Amino acid sequence: MAKNQQNTHPEADGLDLQAQFGKTETFITENQKSLTIIGSVVVAMVLLYFGYTKFYLAPREIDAQDNMFRAEQYFEADSLDKALNGDGNYPGFLKIIEDYRGTKSANLAYYYAGVSYLKKGEFQKAIDNLNDYSAKDDITGTTALGAIGDAYSELKDYNKAADFYKKAADKNLKGFSATYLMKLGLVYEELKENDKALDAYKKIKTDYADSYQARQIDEYIARIEAKM
């Protein structure tokens, strides 16, 4: 008895592929104008993006960097008013933010401005600027979180301070996490959450035993345990 011949029809599992291809061809034919317009718009958007980046944003980035170096020098020298507002010849961080939005320099200026306001005791302005900063590296990302925690702590908003100290400590950045765990423990003590304070102090002892904070942490642990 002859073997059944293989099915040569373009059908698989009940799916008529030829019919489907026909539908696709019909759709393309009927909508060719719309598809062409869509394709042209996509190409135009790509070209605009690269043109914006190369011919507009890149020169502005260079200009922003050239103008910002003096503000950074004032920041390092703790001349915070000049760092923020400029010296009459060079702009400060606030002007960099205003004039060069979208550049890396303007983004970094938010960080510098936030820390400057923190040092000046203008804590809400510090929070606002640091929240606008988009961190590009672990160190400034961690210290920005910690600085927001410091500002909230100064404002006696200990719940928000604890949130930001915890975020900073959770970055597990050597040289920083133990500092923020210590601050976290202290604000938990202010909140009368002694169990959480004890956890923060014990984490310093176990995870950051070689830190400066670990040298005196037993005293903090003993103090908390005496309250519980």
Automatic annotation (TrEMBL):
<feature type="transmembrane region" description="Helical">
    <location>
        <begin position="34"/>
        <end position="52"/>
    </location>
</feature>
<keyword id="KW-0812">Transmembrane</keyword>
<feature type="repeat" description="TPR">
    <location>
        <begin position="142"/>
        <end position="175"/>
    </location>
</feature>
<protein>
    <submittedName>
        <fullName>Tetratricopeptide repeat-containing protein</fullName>
    </submittedName>
</protein>
<dbReference type="InterPro" id="IPR019734">
    <property type="entry name" value="TPR_rpt"/>
</dbReference>
<keyword id="KW-1133">Transmembrane helix</keyword>
<dbReference type="InterPro" id="IPR011990">
    <property type="entry name" value="TPR-like_helical_dom_sf"/>
</dbReference>
<keyword id="KW-0802">TPR repeat</keyword>
<dbReference type="Pfam" id="PF13432">
    <property type="entry name" value="TPR_16"/>
</dbReference>
<keyword id="KW-0472">Membrane</keyword>
<dbReference type="Pfam" id="PF13174">
    <property type="entry name" value="TPR_6"/>
</dbReference>
